[in-house]
Design brief:
- The complex is a heterotrimer of chains A (about 425), B (about 575) and C (about 290).
- Chain A has a 7-stranded mixed β-sheet with strand order 7-6-8-9-10-13-14, with helices on both faces.
- Chain A has about 425 residues and is of the alpha/beta class.
- Chain A contains 13 helices and 14 strands.
- In chain A, helix 3 packs parallel to helix 12 and helix 12 crosses helix 13.
- In chain A, about 60% of the residues are buried.
- The two termini of chain A are about 45 Å apart.
- Chain B is of the alpha/beta class and about 575 residues long.
- In chain B, about 55% of the residues lie in helices and about 10% in strands.
- In chain B, strands 8-9-10-5-11-12 form a 6-stranded mixed β-sheet, sandwiched between helices. A 4-stranded antiparallel β-sheet of chain B has the order 4-3-6-7, covered by helices on one side. A two-stranded antiparallel sheet of chain B has the order 1-2.
- The radius of gyration of chain B is 28 Å and the shape is elongated.
- By secondary structure, chain C is mainly α.
- Classes of the chains: A alpha/beta (about 425), B alpha/beta (about 575), C mainly alpha (about 290).
- Chains in contact: A-B, A-C, B-C.
- The interface between B and C is large, with 43 and 42 residues.
């Protein structure tokens, strides 16, 4: 299946003239495949409550690996044009999967297993910050590079780890984006001074909530309410009643998809919507969300390191999404985009290392310098600071408008006009 | 002779040396989980298995242990060597505070209460800023690879630590199982009232089991925190930990020392290895398999895995001399001894029914007093009042001058009152021998002493004598539930008299057994009486009463109508009218 | 402030009715045969999937799904009894816990294997709200509340006025006495499972329009269902109703007044306090 799509894609995009070259590549490819592939371990929640997200990440990582292993001459992405890892004699990349079940202890155990049993030379993972924290410990203890594309807890890169690298932005960056947007709105004349926070109470939500509260206070906003709940909730009525009663101008949320559906429905039932409801992570950017709540989900804002909407300015994004779509039958979401980028970054480093020795890969990761043009992300590029954090990681604000996720901020890259305040339910 | 112990020692030796042979960290990790959750299941087993109080809330203790140790280390730099025990103490304290009120609950409800209490604990920790609230605690990594802090990068030291914790928990369970404590806890599980009446302070024993269990669970939680190096309420206080622990103990074999030890590898390895084999495919098939295994075991092997491997064999008994003791050798007792039990103005009403109204009764040392009267006369209620099962509305009762009214049953027993029940109450799953030894003297018996020592040889000899004279010696290894009804009656009588109480209250000792055995029971009571024991006997079989009793008290409508020599009472016109309806 | 509390109370009542409907089957089974079904909420989850798929594939409105889903789940309950529960009715507590706990895993991860981890919900554009005592409540929630009341009414009438209902009660009182009276106790038990699972399926059908389903969704309801049964009064049908309402109210009113983070702490504290102080529940008589 993978091969067929690849070839079709390839023939269509380049024409028969280059076919012979491609055939040569495939032979090299075939020959190198005889050599042991380079193994990367991916540690993600494949079962359990987060399996839905794990599946999207898996799809994205498999697409990235496919791009490394097979030639995609028309894609300006690291290692896409060639087959395999050129500096390693064209060896192929192989991903072995570990299932964290969303549990920190299991995450660490799986990381150990992938390193020792499967011979992973580097790890990628693990979505939830709590699991990334423990899984990366296994890598740190053994001196194996750990690349984290998507965990948002700022503490992960404050631990002084030598083998830990994060390509994506963390909560502080994300929260700054939210408040910067609000500042911009105020400059445009909006009157905004009160914020409420609604978050689930595991490490993800609680960290995001804490950062949001800190930002709000340091920038002179009144935090009118901060409500944490356990996911999956049977009801969020009490939480939202209190938030509504505290009369905030906007609400910041950190919620899982199951919660998001309930939030939307409860807000509609209460016939109330703040001027803006902006959320951390991607509940609103997961396609399931709109399938489930339909038009009621419009006008939510989300911080996102990525949005399909940036394809207008970056044709590369559209091309990659097209491939993803063909393979998996759905559009990429932001988690998938981050995982995809993370995997390519890791592959790029392994290639530049020219070796599978962990220390060489670590060194190559430190020297990573991928320009923004070679990314599907709206970032200037990828370069790690000495804590292992990508210094260019940032994001955009997207809003759900007419069933699509539109980039609405920063204003200069916006593809659609931000709707603020959101219209009341009666006028939707 | 010592096969199980030798086998256990051998397995332990292999386990200790195993990391030298297998360095595979996936395996070592799985084993760390096996040991830790095995230890937690072992701890749970003390209260959930032996004492029969099924707890679904042990995650709270696990979490308390993990949090206490992690917090002391990260905020105060206190070594886990100390922190673990602080955590254990805190968990034990909490368990006692929680157990004290909740042990009153019937079993289903106790289980649900623990489930809710654990949830309350989780929510509290989730909002407790000092311990990191929802974000949890990262253990300080700078202490790694130092024995003083019990944190390492490699797996083998954790493996040994976890193994040590399992060994500790198993040693404790073994001590409990082998000695009096295990016997009493099982008795508590099977019939709390009967255990109380034998003088076993049941609530104290349940709290003991709970505290010990909580402390050991906390130790495992602490080591788990040191292993994972990051804790939050989701990974150390979640209900799935409680359930995992319960399932290990139940699958392995509840109320046995080796059940949890056997259950842990089965459950944990099944879980870990199916994750490795199938989990990557993301279908969750491993959990389905797991569920199926659990259901199958519950249907076909309720005793758990241990039941598949080991046939329930009675424990070897000490060779007790047990000379063919005949109590009739003892000096005969008369009916005219000093006052031993005195009841004054006893009153008890249930709603509008006055079951006992102003009963006065005197029992003299060495006599057998019959208590007769029509059904509903208040005889058993009088016993219930005396022995603390029912709180009387008014009145006084003293055993040798010591007031017993208002005391819980076991305290009444300590004061020297023993009792059998109308429906025979023995502990069906305990051997006859263990049943009898439950009747040993419990006054002044320390919890620890009972955990590490067996009853003194003199008591065992006395028990042997009793069994012989009761013709139960050959059955001593059988579970009491397998005895005939009559034999159970004999056994319960033996249990009541083993500690030679001051007064023995017998509630219908001759009811429901064949005439030959009635004869035998009468003979035994007379013989025991001759050896110096005092009896009060409720009985409807008048012939029996006439034959064995020195005096008879006749009760009707909650009052003692008359007391006197049997033949006098039998001829008393009031008795004839009230009893025989003439 | 009063307005806020009033709103919380009204939506608490509606929510409570839903909890009560979820707990009804649990209470019935528990009361009739003294078996605590740990897998109860998994049937809720399965019923929600069934309703969802009927809607997604066949465009069957949830209300119209009732005649399909409820009988099927009645059968499923009956089958569960015959295949599994019958063997553990008189087994010790531990075996019962075992059996239904294992069942929980099989059903939950069976659903996972069949439907994947995705979150599904039904979206109907026309969905409006209905004012209930001045508070807007989603029409689908009001429907669920009314269905709950109707289910309680029907079940109570069934138990009270039909021969089978009376036989069911007799079987609940005492197995031995019922057997002596010639009541087919085994069939009564199977019936209680059928009815119990059918009612929880009914809850699922009417829950899905304003909720969502995923394989682990049972977690959100299981403990609340236990608490409902215990709070209201164990062993009686209206107990679940009173218990569910109490929980809905406690959760919403105290949650709104004090802090939503602690809303279940209040619920569970009340639950434990009830067990200790009045184990027979709000409605129960002393000793069953």
């Amino acid at each position: 299946m993978v091969e067929r799509v690849t070839r079709r894609q390839f023939l269509r995009s380049t024409g028969a003239a280059v076919a012979s070259v491609a055939l040569g590549d495939r032979l090299v490819d075939w020959a190198s495949a005889q050599e042991a592939p380079v193994t990367v371990g991916a540690v993600y929640p494949l079962t359990g409550a987060l399996a839905r997200i794990g599946a999207a990440i898996r799809n994205a990582i498999e697409l990235a690996v496919d791009m490394v292993n097979n030639p995609y001459p028309d894609l300006n992405l690291p290692l896409a044009r060639t087959a395999g890892l050129p500096r390693l004699g064209g060896r192929r990349l192989r991903v072995v999967w570990g299932d964290t079940r969303g549990d920190p202890a299991t995450g660490r155990a799986e990381a150990d297993r992938l390193i020792e049993r499967e011979g992973a030379v580097a790890l990628i993972g693990s979505y939830q910050s709590a699991v990334t924290a423990t899984a990366s410990l296994a890598a740190e203890a053994r001196g194996i590079p750990f690349l984290n594309p998507e965990s948002s807890s700022p503490r992960l890169t404050e631990r002084g780890f030598k083998w830990f690298f994060r390509t994506g932005p963390h909560d502080i960056t994300f929260t700054r984006i939210m408040f910067d947007m609000v500042e911009d709105l105020k400059r445009r004349g909006a009157r905004i001074s009160r914020v409420a926070i609604l978050a689930e109470d595991s490490e993800f939500g609680a960290t995001a909530a804490g950062v949001a509260k800190g930002f709000a206070q340091s920038r002179g906003y009144t935090v009118t309410a901060m409500e944490l709940y356990t996911s999956p909730p049977s009801s969020l009525t009490a939480e939202l009643l209190r938030i509504r009663a505290s009369n905030p101008d906007f609400v910041i949320g950190a919620n899982y998809l199951v919660d998001a559906v309930l939030i939307t429905r409860t807000l509609k039932e209460m016939r109330w919507f703040p001027q803006g409801f902006m959320v951390h992570a991607g509940f609103t950017t997961v396609p399931d969300y709109l399938n489930t709540v339909g038009r009621d989900g419009y006008y939510f804002l989300a911080r996102a390191p990525w949005a399909l909407g940036i394809a207008r300015r970056k044709p590369l994004v559209a091309r990659v999404n097209e491939l993803y779509r063909r393979k998996h039958g759905a559009d990429m979401d932001e988690v998938a985009a981050r995982a995809f980028t993370g995997m390519l970054t890791l592959a790029d480093a392994i290639n530049r290392a020219g070796s599978t020795a962990p220390a060489a890969i670590q060194k190559a990761l430190r020297e990573t310098n991928i320009p923004g043009a070679q990314l599907i992300m709206p970032w200037q590029g990828i370069q790690f600071d000495d804590k292992g954090q990508n210094r260019y990681a940032t994001g955009v604000m997207v809003q759900i408008l007419d069933g699509e996720y539109k980039v609405v901020w920063p204003f200069d890259v916006a593809e659609a006009e931000l709707v603020w305040p959101a219209p009341p339910w009666e006028r939707r | 002779m010592k096969r199980p112990q030798t086998l256990a020692g051998l397995v332990l030796a292999v386990l200790v040396l195993l990391p030298a042979a297998i360095q595979d960290s996936f395996f070592l990790n799985a084993m760390v989980h096996v040991f830790l959750f095995g230890a937690a299941a072992q701890a749970w087993n003390l209260v959930g298995g032996y004492a029969g109080q099924i707890s679904f809330g042990h995650a709270a203790f696990f979490g308390i242990g993990a949090y206490t140790t992690a917090w002391l280390l990260s905020r105060h730099g206190l070594s886990p060597w100390l922190g673990i025990w602080v955590g254990a103490a805190v968990a034990a304290g909490v368990s006692l505070a929680v157990g004290y009120p909740t042990f009153r609950l019937r079993r289903h409800f106790f289980a649900l209460a623990t489930l809710a209490l654990a949830e309350i604990a989780r929510i509290s920790f989730l909002n407790w800023e000092a311990v990191g609230a929802a974000i949890g605690l990262y253990l300080p990594l700078q202490y790694r690879n130092r024995l003083a802090y019990l944190m390492w990068d490699s797996k083998p030291p954790y493996y040994w630590t976890a193994l040590a914790v399992l060994a500790l928990a198993t040693a404790v369970a073994w001590a409990v199982d082998r000695h009096r404590a295990g016997r009493y806890l099982r008795a508590v599980e099977q019939d709390e009232d009967a255990a109380e009446m034998l003088g076993i302070p049941t609530r104290r024993w349940k709290l003991f089991a709970m505290g010990l269990s909580a402390a050991l669970t906390a130790v495992t939680g602490a080591v788990y925190a040191l292993y994972v190096l990051y804790i939050d309420p989701y990974n150390v206080m979640a209900s799935r930990i409680s359930l995992l622990v319960v399932v290990i103990a139940l699958l392995g074999g509840r109320g046995t020392v080796w059940g949890p030890v056997l259950g842990a590898p089965f459950v944990v390895l099944l879980n870990e290895y199916t994750r490795a084999w199938l989990g990557g495919r993301g279908a969750g098939a491993d959990f389905i398999l797991f569920g199926l295994a659990v259901v199958l075991v519950s249907l076909y092997q309720p005793r758990g895995l241990i039941g598949l491997l080991v046939r329930p064999s009675p424990r070897l008994l000490p060779a007790v001399a047990g000379a063919q003791g005949d109590p009739q050798d003892a000096p005969p007792a008369g009916a005219g001894g000093p006052l031993v039990l005195q009841v004054r103005g006893m009153e008890k009403a249930f709603g509008g029914v006055r079951a006992v109204r102003g009963v006065d009764l005197e029992v003299r040392r060495g006599e057998i007093l019959g208590l007769v009267g029509p059904n509903g006369a208040g005889k058993s209620t009088l016993f219930d009042c005396l022995t603390g099962f029912v709180r009387p509305d008014a009145g006084q009762a003293a055993v040798d001058g010591v007031h017993v009214l208002g005391l819980p049953p076991h305290r009444v027993a300590w004061a020297g009152l023993a009792r059998t029940f109308q429906n025979v109450r023995v502990f069906p799953d305990l051997s006859v021998w263990d049943n009898l030894l439950c009747g040993a003297e419990h006054r002044g018996e320390g919890l620890w002493e009972a955990t590490v020592r067996e009853v003194p040889p003199t008591v065992q000899e006395e028990a042997g004598r009793l069994l012989r004279s009761f013709n139960l010696w050959d059955h001593r290894q059988r579970p009491a539930g397998e005895l005939s009804y009559g034999q159970q009656k004999l056994l319960s009588l033996a249990m009541a008299v083993l500690r030679r109480p001051r007064v023995v209250l017998l509630d219908e000792p001759a009811a429901g057994v064949n005439p030959v055995l009635v004869e035998e029971i009468g003979r035994l009571i007379r013989a025991l009486n001759a050896s110096g024991l005092t009896f009060v006997v409720i009985e409807h079989n008048m012939e029996f009463v006439m034959r064995i009793c020195h005096r008879v008290a006749f009760m009707a409508e909650g009052q003692v109508v008359t007391v006197g020599r049997p033949e006098e009472v039998q001829r008393d016109p009031r008795v004839l009218e009230l009893y025989y309806g003439r | 402030m009063t307005e806020l509390v009033w709103q919380a109370a009204v939506s608490g009542v509606v929510l409570g009715l839903v909890y009560a409907l979820v707990a009804l089957g649990l209470s019935l089974i528990w009361g009739v045969m003294d078996v605590v079904n740990l897998a109860h909420a998994e049937y809720l989850m399965l019923a929600m999937y069934a309703t969802y798929w009927l809607w997604a594939l066949g465009r069957v409105d949830p209300a119209l799904a009732v005649p399909v889903v409820v009988p099927v789940f009645f059968g499923l309950g009956w089958l569960t009894y015959q295949a599994l529960v019958r063997r553990i009715v008189r087994a010790p507590l531990a075996a019962q816990i075992f059996a239904t706990f294992g069942l929980l895993f099989i059903l939950r991860y069976g659903a996972f294997a069949a439907f994947g981890p995705n979150v599904y919900g039904i979206w109907r554009p026309g969905e409006g709200t209905v004012p209930v005592l001045g508070v807007p409540v989603a029409a689908s929630k009001v429907t669920a509340g009314l269905v709950s009341l109707a289910a309680f009414g029907l079940l109570a009438a069934f138990l009270r006025y039909t021969k089978t209902g009376k036989a069911l009660q007799a079987a609940a009182q005492s197995r031995e006495v019922a057997l002596a009276l010639g009541i087919p106790v085994d069939r009564m038990y199977a019936l209680s499972w059928g009815l119990g699972i059918a009612t929880v399926a009914l809850a699922g059908v009417f829950l899905i329009p304003f909720y969502q389903v995923s394989p682990t969704i049972g977690d959100a309801f299981l403990l609340l269902a236990f608490a409902s049964v215990v709070l209201g009064g164990f062993g009686r049908v209206d107990g679940a109703l009173v218990g569910g309402l109490s929980i809905g109210l406690l959760e919403n009113v105290l949650g709104t007044l004090i802090s939503p983070t602690f809303k279940f702490l209040f619920v569970f504290a009340a639950f434990v306090a009830m067990l200790l102080v009045r184990p027979q529940g709000l409605l129960g008589d002393v000793g069953r």
